[in-house]
């Protein structure tokens, strides 16, 4: 029954002209670490798969190979092997639950923004094949204000900024928005660059009002001090199932599909699916993403 519904949704997506051609690149980020990015990324990916999309995560969290641990898979190669020409995209991709694709970044993520000319063509050819392998590429950017992170964010079609209601997380989220809106001079050829739209998710809230208050604080600061715009994409409740799932190296979507946290993430996936039907900011798929990334 479930499989049939999934198959029907897949057909609907394939028939929908909005899905033709380019894949959508979504970057998930936060000001500081530990706010729940990796958990959110893995589970929204699984929720989107249940809706009929093919999804691959690019694990850009340096050092800690978070995404594969959360999914209980062991990759052998990373983006570094692709950049050096030793491996193809198909050889570094690993598959987790529900057919979720995982591209382990390793230190290759940092290098992606600075590929040498000699390797460029090979890398673009390999990453270009992602277009045929997935509908949505979600990048778990890792935290912090490094140039790699902001470059990824600016090149992506959609940005999801995760924060918790904690003042420190909020301050760092604001810092991230500030870096995004001031980091780069405006590009006259790309008027949309001037106004980067950021979708905010408030994680670990006790109730809806916590999420709304947290978002209002961020929004007020943005309106006072920055250009750009933020919108509240959704919130996720504080839920002990999240910690339990992580301990067992099994995604929440599999271990506790009826938990309140996962139901929030499913609801957000619905909105993200709506974003998919809106015109993307760059509209140029993986090649557009790479062009943007390399131009920075
Ligand atoms: N909604 C939530 N409810 C309870 N605990 C959460 C929730 N989201 C995240 N956590 C906890 O926060 C910790 C950090 O999550 P993680 O996804 O690794 O963060 P990040 O990738 O941002 O560093 C996890 O160990 C998890 O137990
Ligand atoms: Mg992480």
UniProtKB/TrEMBL annotation:
<dbReference type="GO" id="GO:0051782">
    <property type="term" value="P:negative regulation of cell division"/>
</dbReference>
<dbReference type="GO" id="GO:0009898">
    <property type="term" value="C:cytoplasmic side of plasma membrane"/>
</dbReference>
<dbReference type="InterPro" id="IPR033875">
    <property type="entry name" value="FlhG"/>
</dbReference>
<dbReference type="GO" id="GO:0005524">
    <property type="term" value="F:ATP binding"/>
</dbReference>
<protein>
    <submittedName>
        <fullName>ATPase</fullName>
    </submittedName>
</protein>
<dbReference type="GO" id="GO:0005829">
    <property type="term" value="C:cytosol"/>
</dbReference>
<dbReference type="GO" id="GO:0016887">
    <property type="term" value="F:ATP hydrolysis activity"/>
</dbReference>
<dbReference type="InterPro" id="IPR025501">
    <property type="entry name" value="MinD_FleN"/>
</dbReference>
<dbReference type="InterPro" id="IPR027417">
    <property type="entry name" value="P-loop_NTPase"/>
</dbReference>
<feature type="domain" description="AAA">
    <location>
        <begin position="24"/>
        <end position="174"/>
    </location>
</feature>
<dbReference type="InterPro" id="IPR050625">
    <property type="entry name" value="ParA/MinD_ATPase"/>
</dbReference>
<keyword id="KW-0547">Nucleotide-binding</keyword>
<dbReference type="Pfam" id="PF13614">
    <property type="entry name" value="AAA_31"/>
</dbReference>
<dbReference type="InterPro" id="IPR025669">
    <property type="entry name" value="AAA_dom"/>
</dbReference>
<keyword id="KW-0067">ATP-binding</keyword>
